[in-house]
Amino acid sequence: MNHLDSPDEQATVSRMHRPILLIPAFNEETSLPQVLDRVRETGIDFEIVVVDDGSSDRTGEIARNTGATVLRHPFNLGYGAALQTGYKYALETDTEFLVQLDSDGQHNPADLSRLLQPVLEDRQDLVIGSRFLGSDYRMGALRAIGRLLFSAIARLFGLRVSDPTSGYQAMNRRVLSAHSQDSFPVDYPDVNVLIAASRQGLRISEEPVDMSAETRASTMHGGFRSLYYVYKMLLSTWTASAIRRK
Amino acid sequence: MPPEFDHEALRELFLSAPESEATRIVAIVIAVLLLTTVLWLVRRRGLREELTPIWVVTAVGIFLVGIRLDLLHGITRLVGAWTSSSTVFLLSSLFLMAICLSYAVRLSRASVQIKNLAQETALLRGRLDRLEHRNADD
């Protein structure tokens, strides 16, 4: 069911600027067209914003040809920085709501409205799409341990999330403001960011989503990067814990 | 049976050994060379003025130690070392650690500034594209 089909909800959205669908992309000329096609099939009226994170292929050009707004970094800054550019754009254009989705096709656009709905109704500030709620998503042993570890750490801070590394999220302007600070990580905005948001008093929940096998994550967290990832998360979680709880 | 050494007496012997005049000259030459290099780099615009104080202070410090070697002996006694060269090695290591940490802090700040500038460039270019698009439609 498309949750935005009801007249009240459509009226709510139309009174404001269209929600932004943010897609950070780095050298994704192969998968991006399919992702954009699948987004259009949902029929939801988004402003699609593709942040081209310094790609050396035709990512930006392909996105522009489909009518998307393209923000191009002059050089590669990292996944977190690409997301933040989108957040800053949303703030600059007075956009109230934003959904972010990966450009590698891992996230299913059919879940967009389910994620956005609680934010539109002001029941939540940030909604995370969880691949583990109501499905038997399978991942490698190490990654599964990592997920359990970071879920447990989040729980220490009073935050219950089953999928702390999910990049499929919907948020409102309060979250956009919080995420536009200089402290937002340029590489891995995962559980550290969620804990920081939670401590700032933002309401966070999860919705079940359908996700295909990881592609981006495998390139971002492979090899020695896994060790760095764990180190970085623990350090930035500790930093986030210094934020005074609201 | 090995002979027993009086370690304290041995250490005192090390500490009271006279420094050669060559040590003094080497220290003074290093200080002058460092200061000259810093000034030359500033003049050639290879080094910004605001980054020079730590190097000038270091050059002055080496110069002072060169002309007053007893200062170095005092520090050697204070830190429990046996020889002045150990103290010089220790101080050099501490200095290098401090300078690396200082540059890491500056680099962190510069990284944030570069990221913000690149994002600003992307946003401005996006705005320019939209304006050009709108003008073309009109």
Could you name the key traits of this structure?
heterodimer; A: 246 residues; alpha/beta; Spore Coat Polysaccharide Biosynthesis Protein SpsA, Chain A; 7-stranded mixed sheet; 10 helices; globular; B: 138 residues; mainly alpha; 5 helices
Shape of chain B: elongated
Q: Give the strand line-up of the largest sheet of chain A.
A: 3-2-1-4-6-5-7
Unreliable stretches of chain B (pLDDT < 50, length at least 5) are none
Given helix and strand content, the structural type of chain B is mainly alpha
**Would you identify the CATH H-level superfamily of chain A?**
Spore Coat Polysaccharide Biosynthesis Protein SpsA, Chain A
Number of strands of chain B: 0
Shape summary of chain A:
globular
Overall pLDDT metric of chain A: 88
Fraction of residues in β-strands of chain B: under 5%
Order of helix and strand elements from N to C terminus of chain A: HEHEHEHEHEHEHHEHH
Describe the structure.
The complex is a heterodimer of chains A (246) and B (138). Chain A is of the alpha/beta class and 246 residues long. Chain A has one domain: Spore Coat Polysaccharide Biosynthesis Protein SpsA, Chain A. Chain A has 10 helices and 7 strands. In chain A, strands 3-2-1-4-6-5-7 form a 7-stranded mixed β-sheet, with helices on both faces. In chain A, helix 3 links the parallel strand 2 and strand 3. The mean pLDDT of chain A is 88. With 138 residues, chain B is mainly α. Chain B has one domain. Chain B has 5 helices and no strands. In chain B, helix 2 packs antiparallel against helix 3 and helix 3 crosses helix 4. The model of chain B has no long low-confidence stretch (mean pLDDT 89). Chains A and B meet through strand 3 and helix 4 of A and helix 5 of B.
